[in-house]
Specification:
- With 215 residues, this protein is an alpha+beta fold.
- It has a single domain, classed as minor pseudopilin epsh fold, CATH 3.55.40.10.
- It is 36% helix and 31% strand.
- It has 1 helix and 9 strands.
- It has a 5-stranded antiparallel beta sheet, covered by helices on one side.
- The protein is elongated, with a radius of gyration of 34 Å.
Length: 215
């Protein structure tokens, strides 16, 4: 009889040990799962942050390339003597040139042709071009630090001139350039994105050459 009771106690103890072992294994598995979830969350956060920075940097570079491309477009329009559709700059009028205007703190810039009829200069085909989202013009350098620069290309000339916000007119009654900025060397247009440490410059040489550089 005692052997039977003793055997029952051993069976019960064995079952209790089995239950406790299973509970122990279950608890350990939950801890493992929690650790895996935490690691995956951290990895996802790092990946997301890296993608955001990459995407913002790409937008900044695209903004610099876009601005450089449009400056070259203005230059080509001037060199080809583009007067726009019939009537905008009549055959009897003089095409002064094409220009691109940038302003400090701006998130866009404008492109225009400039036509002189009699003594009056009139902008035509003016359009505003937006920079990529979050990209702004954070510095302008030419001699000093002007707040507005108008980059003028003349017909049949690769050279460029830089003018202040009062232009047009770009030429006076004698046909000489007016409202020009004091300075020498290249014009540097700095672009930045608030969340990105990198900056880009679009550099316009007095010879008309245009490049973008990462700074």
């Amino acid at each position: 009889m005692s052997m039977s009771v003793h055997g029952k106690f051993e069976t019960v103890n064995s079952e209790l040990l089995t239950v406790n072992w299973r509970r122990s294994r279950l608890g350990f598995s939950l801890i493992e799962l929690l650790i895996v979830v935490i690691i995956l969350t951290i990895a996802a956060s790092i990946t997301t942050a890296s993608y955001v920075i990459f995407e913002r940097t790409a937008r900044l570079k695209n903004g610099a390339l876009q601005l450089k491309s449009d400056i070259r477009l203005v230059q080509n329009n001037a060199l080809s003597g583009n007067k726009g559709p019939a009537g905008l700059c009549p055959a009897t009028s003089v095409l002064i040139g094409w220009y691109l205007a940038v302003s400090l703190g701006g998130s866009s810039y404008t492109i225009s042709g400039d036509c002189k009829t009699g003594v009056s200069e009139t902008a035509f085909l003016t359009r505003t071009v937006n920079l990529p989202r979050g990209v702004t013009i954070t510095n302008l350098t030419y001699g000093g630090t002007p707040t507005t620069v108008k980059i003028l290309f003349r017909p049949l000339s690769y050279n460029v001139s830089f003018h202040d916000g009062l232009a047009p007119p770009f030429v006076d009654s004698l046909g000489d350039l007016t409202n020009t900025l004091a300075g020498s060397g290249p014009l540097k247009i700095e672009l930045s994105e608030v969340q990105v440490s990198d900056k880009y410059q679009v550099v316009v040489q007095s010879s008309g050459e245009v490049n973008e550089i990462k700074i």
